[in-house]
Amino acid sequence: MITTVIFDLDDTLYDEIDYCKSGFFAVSEFLAGLPGAPSADRIFAAFWDQFAAGNRPKVFNSALDTLKMDYNEERIQELVGIYRNHIPKITLPANSRDVLTELEVKYTLALHTDGFLPAQQLKVQTLGVEKFFRIIIYTERLGRECWKPSPAGFEKIIKDLSEVPARMVYVGDNEKKDFIAPNRLGFSTVQLIRPARVHTSVSTESGAAAQHVIHQISELPALLHTL
């Protein structure tokens, strides 16, 4: 019998692309305030063109090159800081809220999220989801080496909740990293494929795929009932 459901955050409970847009808007507004800078809308468009083209590690550098705006590494790090520390303009979708509300009555709920700590905490606070979870694991607190696919965060949940993996389900989105550790630990795993998801790569690694796949979070309660 399943007693515990663990959720990923980004692209599981909400669309991560909304956070990306929010961050780029925050950086665009900052840059637009500099002397001689283009408008915030123009800067945002340059950022989004680079992001949509897949140039994600160098969005700021490439966009500023396109805009012919001078910068150095110190400026880039400043922009990264603005992106990670901005208060995001994101909302929890109604179907996610409905599912969390339904499940918290029947199961112990936990959240397991990778990413830079201030950014992940601000996402959780803005979405207003803390109240649903018995425990929230920010793997950044455990150390960067504990980001998925490390099992460290999952092992901490097992220990803190005094539960066995066979009674636990993990729900995530990214096949490249999300399901490797919980599969090996003996969890049931569910991949939620949101239409606007950021990470779409398929893994060739053995044991990386989730055991179950859904396309709407509203499908989750019925699936859990069968496990």
Would you mind describing this structure in some detail?
The chain has 227 residues and is an alpha/beta fold. The chain has two domains: 4-15 and 91-226, Rossmann fold (3-Layer(aba) Sandwich); 17-85, DNA polymerase, domain 1, CATH 1.10.150. It contains ten helices and six strands; from the N terminus they run βαααααβαβααβαββα. A six-stranded parallel β-sheet has the order 3-2-1-4-5-6, with helices on both faces.
What does this entry show, briefly?
The protein has 227 residues and is α/β, with parallel strands linked by helices.
Shape estimate? elongated
CATH class of the largest domain: Alpha Beta
- The percent range for helix content is 40-55%
Number of structural units classed as domains: 2
- Strand content is 5-15%
Mean pLDDT: 95
* Main pleated sheet: 6 strands, parallel
Spatial gap, N to C terminus: 7 Å
Task: Please name the CATH topology of the largest domain.
Answer: Rossmann fold
Order of helices and strands: EHHHHHEHEHHEHEEH
How are the strands of the biggest sheet laid out side by side? Answer: 3-2-1-4-5-6
Radius of gyration: 19 Å
